Every structure is written in structure tokens, then in C-alpha cells.
Amino acid sequence: MTESRTADRELRAEISIDATPAQVWDALTDLSRMPARSAELISMVPLKRGGLRVGQWYLGLNRRKAIVWPTRNVVKQVDPERALAWHTATSGATWIYELEANDGGTRLVQRRPVPRLTYISKAFAPLFLGGGAPHCDELEQHMNEGLVALKAEVEQG
């Protein structure tokens, strides 16, 4: 197995959107719309009062084929029109969105580093997701597809 095919590698997707960072931010931070842009996410439900903010907890409900599983997510960064990030305690992954004004539009980068893969993730992925590295390959493809969907949503108004 090569370095690029490990389960703990950083995944990355990037797109240019013909809209302002404010317009992209508004769509990106409407987490009720996120399942429409994700092949696995069914819902993201806030578990505390106060809306999207650093420290907010979200229950993620995910599905791949017949397998459904929950995740616990903690928002780590909310920098309006610049960056949004949450840590998925269940897997050890951090989901990061970075926005940058670019030639009259917005460059949006999505990254998923895994500082430390959890024991739960190490056991769950091989048993239920077809293996850690193959699942990461799928996730990276889904990230690209999700950004394309977000682009279409924002550009169509």
C-alpha cells in the first residue's frame, strides 16, 4: 500500500465558484443543505443551543449502502467568509472548508486531515466500509462531487 492510499491521509478537493465569498459562505453554512451535497451524510443535527459556533456539537448520521452510523462532531473554527471546520471525534478526522476571494469569485478548498485515526474507525472501516483506504478514495470523490453541487447551487442562486 502506498502512502497516498492510507486511511489516515489528508483528502482534498478544490473548486472555483462564480460568486462572492459571502454567497458561498451563506450556502456552505446552511448545514441543513449539506446532505444534498454529500453521498454519505443523511443529516447534521445541532446538539446544543446557539447555532453554528465554535464548540457547537452536531450529530451526523451517515449511510453507505445498507450501513448507517452516527458521528459526533465538534465545531472548531467559524471564520465568516474564510474558514469553517469541525472535528469528527468518532473517526479522528477534521473537516475543513477554506474560502478565498479569487478573480471576482471564490476559491473553495475542502480538506479532511486525520491527525489520529480512532480505534473505532480502524475497526469499523474494514468491517463495514470496504476498508479504510478504499473508503477514503470514495470520500475524496464524494468531496469533489459535493463541491460541484455547491457550486451549482450558489451560481444558480
TrEMBL record:
Entry's Pfam families? Polyketide_cyc2 (PF10604)
Its name, as the record gives it, is: SRPBCC family protein
